[in-house]
Write a structure and sequence with these properties.
288 residues, Arc Repressor Mutant, subunit A, Rossmann fold, 2 domains, five-stranded parallel sheet, elongated
């Protein structure tokens, strides 16, 4: 039986809403799940009951109270939250107990290298050539990202602005996206960085940019749905790792690769801009 109005609410939200009215046994289950909600998918109902030191019936009543038809439905909910990239659901009890040391540092480095390798293994040389050519030829380049992806988009913009003109962030201070998307048109190229967790409106922004006639390069992760349908090119970047936060090492590597290849495409024109900027840096005393 589902409780009306709870179908779209997250597992954690449901628990917090019911917590004050929970009997002591069910509260033990709630405390256990809230500590590491992402690990729920790894347990059976019996294992959860044993860990919480309650009966199987108590576990069943608890999840029914939350509005789930069954324990398996709650596990699927936890799995979806984990797959979406929620840091709360990616956290594990084992990860919390790990201590920093030489072994862990090497393991962490190996994991980052593996993500970079997996991302670059998915690239095609002809596709990179086609994309870098489009980045060089575009009338104007725009960059857009949200949350963590905004930093990656900003990084990319700072690379490209050094060797070609008309490079912009799509959002500016105090502006709405509608005001900037209205400027897009044929010949423009939007570099859209959208790595989980994807902002709900990203698909609409991508569609609006495509409808305006702009080409779209989308950098995202394998969990993306729908948004790739509006992109001229999509590059998938590996981000998932054993730790609580997603890694952007693959995303940043791809953006740097595209910047380097685009500068090669621009040749002397790109080098001339670099020289002009460096001369201005010197005359303005920008750096120590």
């Amino acid at each position: 039986m589902k409780v009306s109005g709870k179908e779209e609410r997250s597992l954690v939200n449901r628990i917090h809403s019911e917590y004050g009215a929970l009997p002591s046994g069910e509260r033990k289950v709630a405390d256990l799940v809230l500590d590491f909600p992402g690990e729920l998918a790894a347990y059976s109902a019996s294992e959860l009951a044993e860990l919480a030191e309650v009966s199987n019936a108590t576990v069943t009543r608890f999840f029914k109270r939350l509005g789930y038809d069954s324990f398996d439905e709650a596990r699927r909910s936890s799995r979806r939250e984990r797959k979406s990239g929620s840091p709360l659901f990616l956290a594990t009890k084992a990860g919390e107990s790990e201590a920093i040391g030489s072994v862990l540092l090497k393991q962490f480095a190996d994991e980052e290298i593996a993500l970079m390798t997996a991302t670059f293994a998915g690239l095609d040389a002809e596709q990179v050539d086609e994309i870098s050519d489009a980045l060089a030829r575009a009338k104007r380049l725009f960059f857009l990202g949200f949350r963590n992806s905004s930093y990656a988009a900003g990084y990319a913009r700072w690379q490209f602005v050094q060797f070609r003109g008309d490079v912009h962030m799509l959002t500016g201070g105090g502006e709405t996206l509608a005001e900037r998307i209205a400027d897009l048109g044929p010949g423009d190229l939007l570099v859209l960085v959208g790595v989980r967790r994807l902002v709900a409106k990203l698909r609409r922004y991508a569609k609006s940019a495509r409808d305006a006639g702009a080409d779209i390069l989308l950098l995202t992760d394998p969990s993306a749905r729908i948004a790739p349908a509006y992109a001229s090119w999509t590059i998938l970047c590996a981000v998932e790792n054993p730790h609580v936060l997603d890694s952007y090492v693959g995303v940043m590597g791809v953006l740097r690769l595209l910047a380097v290849e685009t500068m090669h495409k621009l040749g002397r024109k790109g080098r001339n801009r670099l020289q002009q900027i460096e001369a201005l840096h010197e005359s303005l005393g920008d750096f120590d």
